# Entry
Amino acid sequence: MKQVEKLIQELNQQKLERQTRRHFLMDCVSKMGGLALAPLMFGCDLGGSKSGSSGLNLSERDLNPLAPLPPPFAGKAKSIIYLHMAGAPSQLELFDFKPELAKYHNQPCPESLLEGRKFAFIRGVPNLLGPQANFAQHGESGAWVSDFLPHFSKVVDEVAFLKAVHTDQFNHGPAQLFMQTGSPRLGRPSLGSWVTYGLGTENQNLPGFVVLTSGGKTPDAGKSVWGSGFLPSVYQGVQCRSKGDPVLYLKDPDGMSRDMKKNLVTAINDVNKEEFNAYGDPEILARINQYEMAYRMQIEVPEVMNINEEPEYIHELYGTKPGAESFANNCLLARKLVEKGVRFVQLYDWGWDTHGTDHDGSIDMGLRNKCREIDRPMSALLLDLKQRGLLEDTLVVWGGEFGRTPMQENREGKTQSFLGRDHHGDAFTMWMAGGGIKKGASYGITDDFGFSGIGEQVSVHDIHATILHLMGFDHEKFTYDFQGRPFRLTDVEGELIRKIVA
Amino acid sequence: MIDFILPLFGRFHPILVHLPIGILAFGIILVFLSGKDESKHFSSIKIAFLLGGIAAVLSSISGFLQYQYEGYTWETVQFHFILGWCTALTAFWLFYETNKLNSFPSYFKIKSAGLFGLLLFTGHLGGNITHGEEYLIEVLPSEIQGALGYELEPEKQLIIPEQGWEELAYFEQVVQPILNQNCKSCHNPKNKKGDLDLTSYQVLMEGGEDGTVMTAGNAKSSPLFSRLILPKEDEDHMPPKEKKQPLKEEIELIKAWIDLGGTTDSKLGEAKITTETLEPFFYKEVKPFYPVTEVEAASESSISDLKEAGFFAETVAEESNWLMISCINFQSFSDSDWFNLKPVQNQIVYLDLTGTQVSNQILDSLGTLPNLTVLKLNETAIDGSSLEKLEANKQLKHLYLNKTKIDIGRIGSLNNHPSLEKVFAFDTPAAETENPGKFSFYLEIGKYQLPALPTDTIVY
# Structure
């Protein structure tokens, strides 16, 4: 019955969305007359209010959609920092060491690997491209990390690697959507939306799901990667800018003092309260609550988004330069936000699409530059979380939307002047650290060329299942009813990756 | 020659049983339709009871034959059998009574209603035998199941000891528990889907309606394994796709058992399996982070009072009574606000006082929290002069003292704390100590650095 009611609600919502001013005027022609006539003829009661509040049983959630909720079981992590390298970094230059591939450098790729395959840009038979980085084992766990990430190689013992992640998408937009929403098509809520929907957020003066971008561009898939899909829109990510005003339109306009703003909010809320007393619609209460929250955010957001007050050694650790838009600044902000009780912080860093079409997109030069930009900040983030004890219950996830081919890209069948790799989803590396993750673990084996996983492969759904598990959810039971059926982040798949859970 | 007649007649039982139900129910309805004096349906009612009685006798006889020839145990059928005969006798008795009557007084209606009840109950018992006792219960929502006292407990999860697993009897201690957990609900003596019973080695070897399910030494041609790995959409996939699916490790164990020879005397250690396959079944002593003792739930009003006062207050999980309290939105919290927390002092396991106005005095109050496991006193005026008072918190595991004025000596006073595991003292005088020494807990003072490298400045 509930489902039927929900379907009707969805239908009405859609109908309302299609109503335009013209419809309204059309309706007025016929109906206003009737309306005017009715009291003349009968002087009757037109429905009116039926004491709004008495029969209502409102939960805290109805009034404040971000009110915290306990997870189904005690999760190991309370908050998440997700570092998404948009464009897909090359696993073969960072973590997946393939000495065999080096031996076959510049030789034609075996036909058996190409049979029935489709690549984004590779045509015909490309040559193999050996690793362009020097690898060594690091830490007590002996994790392989290349010299592209010299700082990160010192913190590998905090991290669990997934070395055979696979996705079925090989274009950025769909692959990013798949990685963030569990579906390559638009319309599904992002991971951060699911988590804030399920748990709310601890600090009521800050948004529950914050998005920070760097690298000059937002992800190819657009803002849908932090959209709320069919979940109420209050659960979508709030994009904060690390330069200028962190949240647009939050600052008081010129000539408007705080007190005046307070009076304004109070006045609007008073009107809304009248409205609620008349109609008893809980949406009105939610609106009142949001006005108040926006007012509180005005104080707290600028404070938490300001990195100027951080001590010098922290700036040195992260390599931050206040005022710039950088991955380093975003990493520091992520720590500050999590420290302040934000549930989900999503970072996107653009510029990892190393096809070898130009200098910036080359495996041996452009990629090195990108690595230098993230190496210190992400290592610093882990250390800073660790020294504050935040790593106990903060989960850090790092990865791209897919991996890259062991072959040199040959766009349009031509030889390229820079070293580059095409999109490849068969096997790539991701890592997780912190809340509930087994330190120093490595899971997943790839073949000698790093082309496919040959053992311990994990899917995108498996990663989602694991993240939800660490937050205290059974991914099979965490659902939202929409269009007459329950939806899951992991659709009908996903298995917990037990080996990387402490 | 006529040997087959009796079992064949027995197999007609499922059809025959519907006759007395229909006929007698029709008669009973007519009884209730008749007024006190009327006898309009008199002859119909008489004939309904007579025919119904005869049909009940035939049903009972066929039922008895089915019991004889189909291998049901007496325990399973006894009540159904006895009540079946009772139904027949009652029908005849009512037929006899109608002969003496001209109208249907109320006592007769009561008797008819009794017969109807008998009919229903006998039919229900019969249904239980064919479809299984949980046939009706299974589809009910779990809350109603619980209210009816039917906790449909799933079979116990297979547990394998990490040491000495090689010695386990492969069939008895590994395969049978897997079958019990994944297959038994549809393949048991009472409910033999596909005429297959998987509750013991003997019956498993008998196979089902399509013949044997296990070819020793060849898993790929044994339906016991091969049907598990069919695509879920395949009609022959087992367990049916809407049922819970076995773990891939469980399937591997079944495969390895068949390949090993599929006998009852092999040991788990003889099979070609790795500890990797067994890992999910190893018994792990899960030490819950929060105390295992039980407390009653904090009252809803006390929690809403806390929220009203500005605290973050939630249970650690939906079913848990332990409370997490944070002052993240209540930074003006000071020693004198402690009274707010008193009503829930037994439930608090996590208390975050970061950035609040508390002083050393608060340590006295903190001692009244018997289950406190995580305590955050970051960025407060605590200087640690009476830190040893935290010894009263016998469950305390994580203590956060970041950005306080605490020094290493004060931290040392906690060295004999019975439960403390980690202390965080980043950005404190303690962190400035050259050689902080060893403690009974892990001390995190941070001060991490990533020394500059030549490569930091090379731009390619």
Remarks:
- Chain B has three domains: 5-147, 165-281, 300-444.
